[in-house]
Amino acid sequence: MATLLFAEHDDASLNPVTARALTAARALGAPVHVLVVGENARPAAEAAARLEGVAEVLLADAPVYAHRLAEPVASLGVALAGEYDALIAPSTAVWKSVLPRIAALIDVMQVSDAIAVIAPDIFERPIYAGNAIQRVRVRDARKVVTIRTAAFAATGEGGAAPIRAITPADAPAGTLFVGEQIAASERPDLTAARIIVSGGRAVGSAENFAKVIEPLADALGAAVGASRAAVDAGYAPNDWQVGQTGKVVAPDLYVAVGISGAIQHLAGMKDSKVIVAINKDEDAPIFSVADFGLVGDLFQLVPELTAEIAKAKA
Amino acid sequence: MKILVPVKRVVDYNVKIRVRPDGSGVELANVKMSMNPFDEIAIEEALRLKEAGKATEVIAVSIGPVKTDETIRTALAMGADRGIWVKTEEAGIEPLTVAKILRKIVEAEGPGLVILGKQAIDDDANQTGQMLSALLGWPQATFASKVVVGEGKIDVTREIDGGLQTLELALPAVLTTDLRLNEPRYASLPNIMKAKKKPIEEKPAADLGIDLAPRLDVLSTLEPTGRTAGKKVGSVAELVGDLKQAGVI
Ligand SMILES: Cc1cc2nc3c(=O)[nH]c(=O)nc-3n(C[C@H](O)[C@H](O)[C@H](O)COP(=O)(O)OP(=O)(O)OC[C@H]3O[C@@H](n4cnc5c(N)ncnc54)[C@H](O)[C@@H]3O)c2cc1C
Ligand SMILES: Cc1cc2nc3c(=O)[nH]c(=O)nc-3n(C[C@H](O)[C@H](O)[C@H](O)COP(=O)(O)OP(=O)(O)OC[C@H]3O[C@@H](n4cnc5c(N)ncnc54)[C@H](O)[C@@H]3O)c2cc1C
Q: Pfam families this protein is in (chain B) (predicted)?
């Protein structure tokens, strides 16, 4: 049989985490079909069809799938599940909300946040904020797995899979979409960025994020992240939170500014290739994972670093 | 309207856990246990809805072995009215099974709202609320950061990738909490004393007619590959030099 991969996208384009989850899906060894569900989502389906190793793209395009609400999308997943051995999705807000519903309705125990595929029925996943790695074997005949995409390289393009339109499944009523506030940003997406600059409580205000952290990010072409403390205090929006209960990232370069390095924060970034920490406390735990540590006041050091980077790039 | 809040007993978030050297699991002997932080947020939200006159009773339910009642007692000390303890022989009941047990409790109690944590900080599964909602056929809103209860409906603002989303759910419904929903209260001493007299009903899990056997076999539990501290650099110029050499800028 085959593997069904649920694509992360915004109808107009495919989110890069999909290509990473595809790498995990292909590791199961069966042909991979990609499901693109949304409204006016053909562009995303076309992008999915170009990915290497995709056998077929299923396109469920209907008004009921606008905003990918969990209940109708899960009903569709349940309707399709019978034809697949494995249902795979990236661990994004959408699929974290949908996949456990499908799993419950087909009576399968889900594996959340897989970081390695050992065999088609054996996966590794982090527990306790990544302080332990569990290797689990799924006893259920069918597998339902969400993928921590930071742990997988992206599959490249080069495919030309056929796109098959599928009809919507019956959708339960009960949930209405009211509105959305999505911040438009020129910066790269946190989960896809090659470089991330994150600020912590020490940054002190939203104005300081704009004045100190964001210029460094822009000089580096980086995405901006934050600790929970900075988000809770209102210095940064919620979707910038990096950590156990925020986004898990693994960029080439992660710059932690005024962040102490609590285990919950480390859980979200300690697999970054190179970590830089700027902190005035030389004993801050963040230095225990940093490749390069700079001890001192961020309000002096970060503008200096921004200028130095701009100079180096000029 | 009754509100049901499932609360889980987990290793305290401040504890740095240790993996047993033989790979058989995480060392849990003599480790400080607490209520899952997201469940404290769930209890708090339920209490605020009761205080605002939107709910009549807050029931805390937990599934687990000996000492699980301590966690229920914590919920009662915060202000929940009564507790239900579904007793199991062992810890580590999987989310699918927990959801099936909770469905039975919901059927017996008839709450208008179930508020769960978005994830438990031990197993980080982030599944139980969604599974319960699917099994009940009730609307769900995960990752709630704001809740407004209306007439037969509820507006929920959710933390999603890229920002916030607001949904309107018909009641009864299932919610899971995110960090920004509220700041949970501390239990006052008088309330801790009062909680000792509040009832906790015990139900053996075996009596519910649900298969408790795990569907996932844990083959091993290992230490993650560690990271060692690098070097401290003396200046911004030195840092930029090192980053260039590392090929990341
Ligand atoms: C259930 C739960 C989930 C959580 N999930 C997350 C999560 O996903 N992500 C997350 O980040 N946290 C999470 N946390 C919170 C975590 O435990 C820490 O509280 C948080 O990460 C601390 O943020 P911080 O490092 O910015 O602040 P602090 O710990 O206060 O650190 C501030 C640092 O800035 C330094 N500093 C101060 N002034 C300056 C200056 N002028 N120049 C340079 N350095 C300075 C200080 O030395 C200190 O090290 C969670 C906690 C719980 C209970
Ligand atoms: C001692 C121990 C042994 C374990 N052994 C195994 C094992 O052998 N095999 C295995 O597969 N896993 C084992 N685990 C992990 C166990 O499966 C997880 O704890 C379980 O899967 C629940 O995942 P979660 O709590 O992260 O779910 P989540 O879906 O993240 O939980 C979300 C919410 O659901 C509610 N909830 C969850 N569980 C309960 C509960 N018990 N009572 C009330 N409400 C609850 C809470 O509101 C919680 O915030 C073990 C865990 C422990 C602590």
A: ETF
